[in-house]
Amino acid sequence: MKTNIRTMNDLRRRTGCGEPVRPATARAWVEAWKTAGIELERLRRQKLRGLTPRQIQQAMVSFDGAFKAIQWREASRKESGLVELQAWFRRMRK
């Protein structure tokens, strides 16, 4: 599905979420999320540092099925996709 949303106002118009956002409000929102992102990353790292070796082992085991599924899917491919990628590049060049 191709979308053509360039600004927050476009998003609000398309979703019907209230009034258009003023640029100052949008800038404040972006700055707030930048600050929140830094704090969330700090909390994530703190939580990871606090894990015990047993908890780390359990997390790794829980991902085992996903890793095996990817390995199986990739092993079942006949080609790497390089030929298709090169064809795309040729079409883009024209």
Structure, described:
With 94 residues, the protein is an all-alpha fold. The protein has one domain. Helices cover 73% and strands 0% of the residues. The chain contains 5 helices and no strands. It has helices at residues 8-15, 23-49, 53-62, 64-75, 82-93. It is flat, with a radius of gyration of 22 Å. The two termini are 25 Å apart. The mean pLDDT is 81.
Helix-strand blueprint:
Layout: H1 8-15, H2 23-49, H3 53-62, H4 64-75, H5 82-93
Quick synopsis:
The chain has one domain.
Notable traits:
5 helices, flat
Helix content: over 70%
**Topology, number of strands:** 0
Radius of gyration: 22 Å
> Could you say how many structural domains there are in total?
1
What is the average per-residue confidence, as pLDDT, rounded to a whole number? Answer: 81
* Amount of beta strand: under 5%
Alpha plus pi helix count: 5
Largest sheet, strands/sense/barrel: none
Supply the helix-strand structural class. mainly alpha
Sketch the topology as an H/E string, one letter per element: HHHHH
The N- and C-terminal alpha carbons lie at a distance of 25 Å
